[in-house]
Structures are given as C-alpha cells and as structure tokens.
Design goal:
Its cofactor is FAD. The chain has 380 residues and is of the alpha/beta class. Helix content is 23%, strand content 22%. It is globular and about 65 Å long. The structure holds NADP nicotinamide-adenine-dinucleotide phosphate.
C-alpha cells in the first residue's frame, strides 16, 4: 500500500458485523494505519493471536486420498521464512485459502517496452509521488489504483497522462490530467497511441491490476483459465474437495462484511450443518453462474467480479440461503451505492464525507451538511 493511501470505502463498509470501529474514529474514510489497527483490535479482542503462525511460507497443499472414503486430508508443506532450506509437513482435515488476490502484478505485453529508457513501475511497488517530481508520466490502466495514483502523482509531476479504455470514467476527474487511449507499444522515450501518435514521457506506471495465483496448489487441484478458477462452487468451495475453501476469489466488493459471511458458511460446511449439493449440481451451478455473467455483458475474465450492479448482494443472499442464516443488512447495499455514485461524481472530495449507520436499513450523512453533489439515498 502506498504512503498516503486512504481507504476507498467508509469504515461502516469495512467492518465485521458485530465488531464496530473504535468510537474515537470520527472520520469515515480511514488511513491504512487506522484500518490495520482495526484488524489488530479484532485479533486482540477475540484473543486469536495465539492461533496465528507468522513467518510461515506455505510451499505445497495437496490432497491425501483415504482408501474407501470420499473425504481427503491435506498435506501441507511449510518452511519458516527465516530457514527456507528446511521444510516441514503437517496434515490437516481442511484448508481455508486466504492468500489474497492483489499481489501477483499484471503487466501487459507492450511492444518495445524493453527499449524504454525511463522509469517503469507497477503500482504494487508505488509508494511516494515524489519519485515523479518534474517528470512527464503515463499511467496505464485506470480503475481504483490508476485513478488514485494519477491524482497523487499529478501533484508532483510536470504532466500526467492517464491511459485507459473505460467507457464509464468519472466525469469529475481532474481536467489537468489528460486522458488518452490505452497504448500497446512504446519507444525509447515514450508511448505510442493506437492512431500512431507518439507521446514523450519520462516514466510509465502500470496500474493494470493483478492476476490470480495459487503457487502452492497443483494443476490437478485447480485450474485458472483467463482468470476463471475451476472447479469452484459459489466462488468459494472446491467442488471435488469441499474441505478446501477459498476466501480470496471474489473481486471488487466490500470485503470485510463478506469475509464474515464466508467464515459463517465455512464453519457450517466443515461441521456438517450445511449439506452441499451433489458434485454434478455444483458443477452445473458454477457453469450457470459463468454463463449468466456473459449474458449480462461481462467479459470471461470477470468470472469472479462482484463490483457491478447489485451482484455482491445477490451473491450474499445465495450464501446466506445455503448456510441458513440471514443475509447482510440492506443498509450496506444502500451505503455502497451512495458512496460509489459519490466517487464517480466527486472523485477529488468524496472521502471528506462521514456517514453513520442508524439502523438495519438506514444511515445518515454527518457532513459536510448540504454540500453533497448527489441526492442522498439515506433513509435515516
Ligand atoms: N484507496 C483504496 O482503498 C484503494 C486504492 C486502489 C486500489 N484499491 C483496491 O485494490 C484492488 C485492485 O485495484 P486496481 O485498480 O489495482 O486493479 P483493478 O481493479 O484490477 O484494475 C486494473 C485496471 O487496469 C485495466 N487494464 C489492465 N490491462 C490494461 C491494458 N493493457 N490497457 C488498459 N487498461 C488495462 C483493467 O481494465 P479491464 O478490467 O478492462 O481489463 C482495470 O480497469 C481493488 O480491490 C481496489 O478496490 C483500493
């Protein structure tokens, strides 16, 4: 995370249900340090630090078949990160994969990139805008990171070009940052646009996102095809080995509340309270989900994307039904829609607003009174 990162959703959407943020925090949009403090508070409150084994590199996770049984155990090969030449093996009944999905950076294949004499970095390694002082900079890719990073760099750089292919780019984006189409080739001192025009730049920042990677799972356990992971039921449960559960597959949603729901469902599956459908039914459900996404206009690479329309809430209802517990409260969806609209219409100031959840279905905006750019959906 970069130095001046502020969370892009308010703290009420970054909360485990039943564990509110400290009352001392008056602002809704937290810094990365404040968000880390919340996680540490959670760990201390539930006294779970003793269950966390740090400095542990997981090398391999493989199923061990038990003769005469449909269930498997898991052989987990680990190393202490301070003694990587030593390996140990432990056997578990189940494995929950929580290894994140924003660490394996994606840099597209750009013709001529090797000739470029300027700086090239991926946003994963971006920390300070000062690195770009006085430079002409091209940012490729403009989703959350590309938007944030280009606005930060623009405060130090001579000129920033944000290069993207989005059709729904925020109209409130600063006009001094020039928007250009995505480029697929570079020269020794610049980028080449699709119409052949060359733009001279001193640095290129790739904000092109990340790709799934599970280096500890072999290809006969999971397959990744153009960012679609199979065989997985409900973006979470391994269809052939339901004791292998993933918490890191859905992209672009409000992570913390959903992680709580994942945890509830995982416990119910593992202790047998939730009975899963047959392997064939789960395969069909997974395929139907993929096909319905294509019908709704998503590209195949968005097989696990949750960030459009009401997709994450529909999905939450499916998980809740499977687990036999109530879905997340509707206030989260209302607040999510509001803050997404606000970011779109007011990208330079949206994080100045503060919110308060007032009920199961209601919230209010605390400030700045009356200056919201859009009609508030708050019902409280
Ligand atoms: N302040 C914050 O809290 C904060 C800030 C930044 C990021 N984040 C989080 O970090 C996660 C990752 O965000 P991210 O923005 O780094 O990744 P991302 O959401 O995957 O976005 C990557 C963008 O790059 C585009 N792209 C990829 N290849 C491209 C190419 N060759 N030419 C043009 N565009 C290209 C993608 O377009 P396609 O999708 O069309 O391929 C996409 O729009 C998100 O969950 C986000 O919420 C949080």
């Amino acid at each position: 995370m970069y130095d001046k990162l502020k969370m892009n959703i308010p703290k009420d959407l970054k909360e485990f249900p039943g564990f509110p943020h400290s009352k001392e925090l008056k602002r809704s949009y937290l810094t990365r340090q404040e968000s880390l403090q919340y996680l540490n508070d959670f760990i201390d409150h539930f006294n779970i630090r003793k269950n966390i084994k740090v400095h542990t590199y997981v090398r391999d996770v493989s199923p061990i078949k038990i003769p005469g049984s449909k269930t498997v155990k898991w052989n987990v090969v680990i190393s202490d990160t301070r003694k990587l030449d030593e390996v140990q093996t432990e056997i578990f009944d189940s494995v929950i994969v929580c290894s994140g999905h924003d660490w394996n950076e994606y840099i597209p294949n750009i013709q001529g990139m090797g000739e470029f004499k300027g700086k090239i970095i991926h946003s994963r390694d971006y920390r300070h805008a000062e690195l770009f002082e006085g430079l002409n900079v091209a940012v490729l890719g403009a989703h959350y990171t590309g938007e944030d990073v280009s606005m930060q760099i623009a405060k130090q750089a001579k000129k920033v070009y944000v290069c993207h292919s989005r059709t729904n780019f925020p109209p409130s984006f600063p006009k001094d940052i020039e928007q250009l189409p995505s480029f697929t080739s570079m020269t020794k001192d610049g980028i080449v646009l699709p119409d052949g025009r060359e733009v001279k730049v001193d640095a290129v920042v790739f904000c092109t996102g990340y790709r799934y990677s599970f280096p500890f799972l072999k290809n006969d356990v999971i397959q990744i095809n153009d960012e679609r992971i199979t065989p997985i039921y409900k973006h979470m449960i391994h269809i052939k080995y339901p004791s292998l559960i993933f918490f890191n597959i859905p992209r672009q949603w409000t992570y913390f509340p959903h992680f709580n729901e994942f945890a509830k469902l995982a416990v119910r599956i593992l202790d047998g309270r939730t009975k899963l459908p047959t392997e064939e039914e789960m395969m069909k459900d997974s395929e139907d989900d993929f096909q319905s996404r294509l019908k709704e206009g998503l590209i195949p690479r968005y097989a696990h994307y949750m960030g459009d329309i009401d997709r994450q809430w529909r999905y939450n209802e499916e998980l809740a039904k499977l687990g036999g517990f109530p879905p997340l409260p509707p206030v989260l969806e209302k607040l999510w829609d509001d803050i997404m609209d606000e970011r779109y219409m007011n990208i330079t100031h949206n994080t100045e607003f503060n919110y308060e959840v007032t009920g199961h279905d209601s919230y209010r905006i605390l400030n700045p009174e009356g200056s919201k750019t859009r009609l508030s959906k708050a019902s409280g």
